[in-house]
Design brief:
By secondary structure, the chain is α/β, with parallel strands linked by helices. The protein is built from 26 helices and 22 strands. It binds adenosine-5'-triphosphate. This is RNA helicase.
């Protein structure tokens, strides 16, 4: 075979880190993919302190003098872990208020908090005291003791429902702002408003370079001449260099290319673990299985027979399963982590030296005609590609293999991601804003304003599910309760309705099971619904019910409960025990949230009410479906002669996803929980309904001559604008 990867010293000319680079063809083992190489920033020795340490004084000065500091810097320079510690040690929490740092993702939130707790308190068990975390359905902090709190952006937003001025915090740091999640963008607007009331509050924005000036300008407050308002602090340097390699021509099959690139690394490189980025959990599972089934062959590729082992990492896994990716590899073994973009930002997996980046991710894209999000596979942005590369080079120099050309990187990938707020369903976000007291959505200071049509559709949907009145005002009930429940408004609506239909236990169970099966292709069965379809169907058959997927999930949970939560029972039925354990925990969390929010109960009273809510009642299936309909009636569809379906709202042609238990039965009327766009537009998690129930639960939408899309949205817009 010909020469493999170029050595860093052999390269020259440009790269994205403005250091030396060059390009040359080479062949990677048996595969035919050619790569060009680009070398990253200057080398620092292993014991070099993190680059952010050189900026400690500058940072503390900036935070003292300016209300907002935008910090930009390379991945791995130490922003996330060190800045809160600098502020803590400099006395910013001495007045009794804490520091909160947000992250877009759960896994980053919890792992970074654990790392900082260990650094600050020199103990592995310290988490939850001085340093804590808060994510949906899981809190590990103490309102008295915790001085540094890591929280997901969505959780901080939810905290603002009870504490709109964030009075518990002295400093709010929004990390990874360039990811532009809806929650982070909304937090930016809210913080800008809070700063006008609280001149003591300090805001730190950590962002990629490209967006820095935009955020600085956004936070600059012209009304305050006595105070400096916003500034930028650039942190130069990274921990260790990462050499970047590109293919010399576009890759046809990125999964095959990822597989081959990894084999090549294993065959030719010394030690160091590999992190592969693919778009979806299905593809993660596919690659993991492929590696595992060829493990002997792969290990024998090396003279020293170093073993390779492979672990998945995506959001549908339980927390414990996710942590497996963070465990160090045994001596003489090489770990390959196959991940979705959950591992893209703020995450440090020790031992990772090689990155394989397919260049794609699965993204939610909003369709204003249907008012629904579509999940589709899209090229990543350059900012994401840099984040992915930055997962190497954190404890030693690394290499990143991009399975696309350098030309694609510079000319096809967008510089930064389209803000999620401009491409996603805003129902949940607007409900949150209304609950925080922002009535005039059109005048809210968005960093980038969402399309007016998306705002209008969200208002219309909120009106249809009774969250807001005809005048766009949040209803005390159920609107305020929906906003307080930690879940999407449609599920919250169904859960609230469940009380009247006497099926709270069942709706809680269904929501918990759906939460576990978040990602298309994921299922509670150990077989993949797409690749091991026969085994999957055979395992599901004993639980299947004619009413559809959600009641089938309920049946599975009930059987699990009946078995005494037996892990052996799970094994005998091809069910993944950790998923069921996760569902069990989630049920309890959801029940407790409901007790807090709807019944105003806390502590022991909430626990005993939660037990009552979760005890067996066996309602009629039609009651459960009617409660679901209260939330999901906008997602109804009717079968067409060719076996496709037409959505009743939006008139979109869709197909039942092959993983549905109803895929071959084709009932006349259905509701669905999710629409996804793959090769076709599919609907998932289907329930059979009677058409007359639509009129019973939502007469304001389905009574003749009242088209839902005519629901006064124009009036909403004009009344919103005039508030
Ligand atoms: N959980 C961890 N285990 C081991 N080392 C860690 C961990 N978290 C962080 N580090 C070390 O601290 C360094 C800085 O990480 P930090 O997350 O603070 O950087 P950052 O500037 O926020 O980068 P990014 O935006 O890429 O997350 C990492 O490069 C790594 O060396």
């Amino acid at each position: 075979m010909s020469k493999l990867f170029l050595k860093p010293g052999e390269v020259s000319s440009r790269n994205q880190y403005q250091e030396q680079s060059s390009s040359r063809l080479f062949d990677i083992g048996e595969s035919s993919y050619d790569y060009e190489s680009t070398i990253a920033a200057s080398f620092l020795t292993r014991n070099t302190p993190l680059p952010i340490h050189n900026y400690k004084e500058a940072l503390l000065y900036a935070v003292k003098e300016y209300r907002t500091v935008v910090v930009v810097g390379e991945t791995g320079s130490g922003k996330t872990t060190q800045i809160p510690q600098f502020l803590f040690k400099a006395g910013w929490t001495d007045g009794g208020k804490g520091i909160v740092c947000t992250q877009p993702r759960r896994i980053a939130t919890t792992t970074v908090a654990a790392r900082v707790a260990e650094e600050l308190e020199s103990s592995k068990d310290a988490l939850g005291a001085l340093v804590g975390f808060a994510v949906r359905f899981d809190n590990c902090w103490d309102s008295e003791k915790t001085k540094i709190l890591y929280a997901t952006d969505g959780t901080l937003l939810r905290m603002m429902l009870s504490d709109p001025l964030l009075s518990k915090f002295q400093v709010v740091m929004l990390d990874e702002v360039h990811e532009r999640t809806v929650s982070t963008d909304i937090l930016c607007g809210l913080l800008k408003k809070i700063q006008r009331i609280r001149s003591d509050l300090r805001v730190i924005i950590s962002s990629a370079t490209v967006d820095a000036e935009k955020f600085r300008a956004f936070f600059e407050y012209s009304g305050d001449s006595s105070n400096n308002t916003a500034t930028i602090l650039s942190v130069e340097g990274r921990s260790f260099p990462v050499d970047i390699y590109y293919t010399t021509y576009p890759v046809q099959d990125y999964l095959q290319a990822a597989y081959e690139a990894t084999l090549n690394i294993h065959r030719n490189e010394q030690d160091g673990d590999v992190l592969i980025f693919v778009p979806s959990s299905e593809q993660v599972d596919y690659l993991v299985e492929r590696f595992q089934s060829n493990i002997f062959q792969i290990s024998s590729m090396r003279k020293d027979r170093k073993r390779l082992f492979c672990v998945p990492l995506y959001s549908g896994l339980s927390y414990k399963e996710q942590l497996a990716a963070f465990q160090p590899a045994p001596v003489n073994e090489r770990k390959v982590v196959v991940a979705t973009n959950i591992a893209e930002t703020s995450v440090t997996i020790q031992g990772i030296v090689f990155i394989v980046d397919t260049g794609f991710c699965r993204m939610r894209v909003y369709s204003p005609e249907t008012g629904m999000d579509l999940l589709s596979i899209q090229p990543i942005s350059r900012a994401s590609a840099d984040q992915r590369a930055g997962r190497a080079g954190r404890s030693r120099p690394g290499k990143c293999y991009r399975l696309y050309t350098e030309d694609s990187y510079y000319n096809i990938l967008r510089e930064s991601v389209v803000p999620e707020i401009c491409r996603t369903n805003l129902t949940s976000a607007i409900l949150q804003l209304k609950a925080i007291g922002i009535e005039n959505i059109m005048n809210f200071p968005f960093v980038d304003a969402p399309p007016a049509k998306s705002v209008a559709t969200a208002l219309e949907v909120l009106y249809a599910i009774d969250a807001i009145t005809e005048d766009g005002i949040l209803s005390e009930f159920p609107g305020m309760v929906m906003a307080d429940l930690p879940m999407e408004p449609f599920f919250a609506r169904a859960l609230i309705a469940a009380k009247d239909y006497e099926c709270t236990r069942e709706i809680i169970t269904i929501i918990a099971m759906l939460q576990v099966e978040q990602v298309p292709g994921d299922s509670v069965f150990k077989y993949s619904s797409s690749r091991e379809h026969k085994s999957f169907e055979a395992a599901r058959k004993p639980f299947g019910v004619a009413e559809g997927d959600l009641l089938t999930l309920l049946n599975i949970y009930d059987a699990f409960e009946h078995s005494g939560h037996s892990l052996r029972w799970c094994g005998n039925h091809g069910i993944v025990p950790s998923y069921m354990k996760k569902a069990r925990l989630l049920r309890r969390s959801i029940a407790l949230s409901l007790c807090n929010v709807m019944y105003g109960l806390y502590g022991a009273a909430a626990l005993s009410k939660a037990d009552e809510l979760l005890s067996q009642k066996n309602p009629d299936p039609s009651s459960i479906i009617k409660a679901l309909l209260k939330g999901f009636f906008m997602n109804s569809a009717v079968v067409q002669p060719d076996g496709s379906y037409l959505t009743l709202v939006g008139k979109k042609s869709v197909t039942i996803h092959p993983s549905s238990i109803l895929a071959s039965r084709l009932p006349k009327y259905v509701i669905y929980c999710e629409m996804i766009h793959l090769k076709r537009t599919y609907i998932r998690n289907i329930t059979v309904i009677e058409p007359q129930w639509l009129i019973q639960v939502a007469p304001h939408v389905f009574e003749r001559r009242k088209s839902p899309m005519e629901v006064k949205w124009k009036q909403f817009i004009s009344s919103e604008s005039s508030k």
